[in-house]
Design a protein that fits this description.
The chain is built from six helices and seven strands, in the order αααββαβαβββαβ. It has helices spanning about 10-30, 35-45, 45-70, 115-130, 140-150, 210-215; strands at about 75-85, 100-110, 135, 165, 175-180, 200-205, 220-235. The protein has a seven-stranded antiparallel sheet.
Length: about 240
Amino acid sequence: MAGQHLPRRGRSVGAAVSAVLLVGAVLSACSEAPSRDEAAREAVAPAAVQARRSAQAMIDTALSELVRLAPALSQVETSTLDICHAGDTNGFFPHDDYRLECHWHETRYLAADGDLAAVLQQTDAAAKQAGCIPGSPTDMDDVRAYLAHGGPGDDGQQLPTPRLSYTLPGSSMPLEVGWSAATDHFEPSNKPGLTWPTVYVEQHRVDVDALWTGPLRGRQHLIRLSTSVTYHTIPWPD
């Protein structure tokens, strides 16, 4: 009958059933989360290795072609970071998108001389010729305006340093072009630790300040080409 309440015993049985289902859901979700050893093995399994090599080859082809088309640039060094994270659950449902997710980050450092605006204009033209899709049609205009004013805007306030941004051809990988001079200083990046959920790390670090006393000695500009990609994922089981 509408509005009739369940007897106290009926409510108790219903609550007990709900509690059992809740515990079952918690145990099921927790059992899906990989252990550190499991996730570490998956990060170096043949499928991950093949995906890693494919991503590296695609990035190498695209960036090498861009550099080839920009005679003002000469490659100096490359930094890379290869890192995998295990997925985690909150006890009820997976709150990470994947059971395992691996990322490749790469930055190429290139030397250039002469007028910086002209160097970046040539870099922009080379990127487009190589098939990179510009993130914004006004990026190069913003860079020219920034360099022409030495950084400050019309109100005298220092403007944020603009960047040239693209998408690498045939992919969704972002590409960012930045620059610096010998007077700019950078702290060397630290290698990420294997603290959960990180289960795999391989890194080649570059001390940018040290480049200026080595291969960049006597050069005017350091141009950076930076990209990253999620190259391997393992979904949660159904």
